[in-house]
């Protein structure tokens, strides 16, 4: 997996990089088909914003979150991303199973 972390109007310190990496590892553990991840951390006046684009096979998942604290924004972003990845995983694995259920139900 290719991980790219960028900071707009802030410096990405090793502590922030480690925090983002640890949070994303938890999310990516759900889904093996992640090819690239691009994280953008930015400051806009009093709001800290974290956004991520996750490139998976067949889809790009984009999530963003804004909070007053950067670490809280990263937490909110990873929670949203976790829900999106699980939803995408269930959709991709459930594909085609409905047709089998309908065929078995018909006499």
Report on this model:
Helices cover 46% and strands 35% of the residues. It has 107 residues and is of the alpha+beta class. It has 3 helices and 4 strands; from the N terminus they run E-H-E-E-E-H-H. It starts with a strand and ends with a helix. It is elongated. Helix 1 links the parallel strand 1 (2-8) and strand 2 (34-44). It has one domain (2-105): Double Stranded RNA Binding Domain, CATH 3.30.160. Helix 1 packs parallel to helix 2. A 4-stranded mixed beta sheet has the order 1-2-3-4, with helices on one face. The model has no long low-confidence stretch (mean pLDDT 86).
Give a brief rundown of this model.
The protein has 107 residues and is α+β, with helices and mostly antiparallel strands.
CATH architecture heading: 2-Layer Sandwich
What's the level 1 CATH class? Alpha Beta
State the distance separating the first and last CA atoms: 47 Å
Describe the strand arrangement of the main beta sheet, using strand numbers: 1-2-3-4
Query: Which series of helices and strands comes N to C?
Result: EHEEEHH
Secondary-structure topology with pairs:
Blueprint: E1 2-8, H1 14-28, E2 34-44, E3 47-56, E4 59-67, H2 70-94, H3 97-105
Parallel strand pairs: 1-2
Antiparallel strand pairs: 2-3, 3-4
């Amino acid at each position: 997996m290719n991980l790219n972390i960028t900071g707009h109007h802030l410096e990405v310190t090793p502590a922030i990089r480690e925090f983002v990496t640890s949070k994303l590892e938890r999310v990516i553990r759900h889904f093996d088909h992640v090819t690239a991840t691009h994280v953008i951390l930015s400051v806009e006046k009093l709001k800290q914003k974290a956004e991520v684009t996750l490139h998976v096979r067949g889809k790009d998942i984009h999530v963003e979150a804004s909070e007053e604290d950067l670490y809280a924004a990263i937490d909110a972003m990873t929670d949203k991303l976790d829900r999106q990845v699980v939803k995408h995983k269930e959709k991709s694995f459930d594909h085609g199973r409905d047709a089998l259920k309908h065929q078995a139900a018909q006499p």
